[in-house]
Amino acid sequence: MKSGLLMMNHQGKKPLRIIDMQCSKFVEPLKKGFTDSGLWAFQSFDLQSTRALHEGCTCAYHGTSQCNCQLVVLLVYRAHGDPITLVLDGRDEQTYLFIVDDKGPAIRSATREVIERIIIQTAQKLLQQTDVVNNLNIANEQL
Predict the structure, then answer these.
(1) CA-to-CA distance for 39 and 78, rounded, in angstroms?
(2) Residue 99 CB: number of other CB atoms within 10 A?
(3) What are 27-77's pLDDT values in tens digits?
(4) pLDDT at 125
(5) Which residues does residue 94 pair with via DSSP β-bridges, in sequence order?
(6) What pLDDT sits at residue 6?
(7) Domain boundaries in the chain?
(8) How far apart are CA 4 and CA 14, in angstroms?
(9) Which helix (H) or strand (E) holds 5?
(10) In the CATH scheme, what architecture does the domain 12-142 have?
């Protein structure tokens, strides 16, 4: 794994969470996790979709045009107030999650804890599903 210094510049902020999973496999289940918890997540940016519009775009991280880096911006809406901006910065097999809060500590700690809980639960659920599939594949190979 390359240094976190090569990731998108997050003004020196520490990630809320690091998930050992490709961002592309994590984003849709995470959006569903927010919905299931009474929140709504709108995807406002996707790096791979943007890259597809530009030929010959070289990845600063990988140094080639063959890149699996991902940057997704989710706007997470609660019942009241402005949306919370959640950035998923994916490199290879890891996803770094950041809450962008340029106005200072405007997000209540309870709200931050709910978001973190949803992230953790979604990751655990996906990892358990992956383990089940891997175990089934091993069992089928042994037959």
Answers:
(1) 5
(2) 18
(3) 999 999 999 999 999 988 767 666 565 666 666 666 666 667 788 999 999
(4) 93
(5) 91
(6) 39
(7) 12-142
(8) 10
(9) none
(10) 2-Layer Sandwich (3.30)
Position 44 scores a pLDDT of 87
Phi, psi dihedrals of residue 87, rounded to the nearest 5° = -110, 130
Q: Which residue from 121, 95, 109, 135 is spatially nearest to 35, judged by alpha carbons? A: 121
Query: What mean pLDDT is predicted for residues 102-117?
Result: 80
Q: How far is CA 17 from CA 3, 111, 121, in A?
A: 16, 15, 12
* Tokens describing residue 132: 């089940």
Residue 27 tokens read as 């984003």
Angle, CA 142 vertex, CA 139 and CA 143 arms, to 5°? 95
- Give the residue among 77, 95, 80, 85 at the shortest CA–CA distance from 4: 95
Q: What is the pTM of this model?
A: 0.76
pLDDT of residue 29: 97
Output phi, psi for 43, to 5 deg: -85, 115
d(CA 15, CA 105): 15
- Write out the DSSP string of 11-69: TTPPPSEEESS-HHHHHHHHHHHHHHTT-EEEEEEEHHHHHHTSTTPPPTTTSSS----
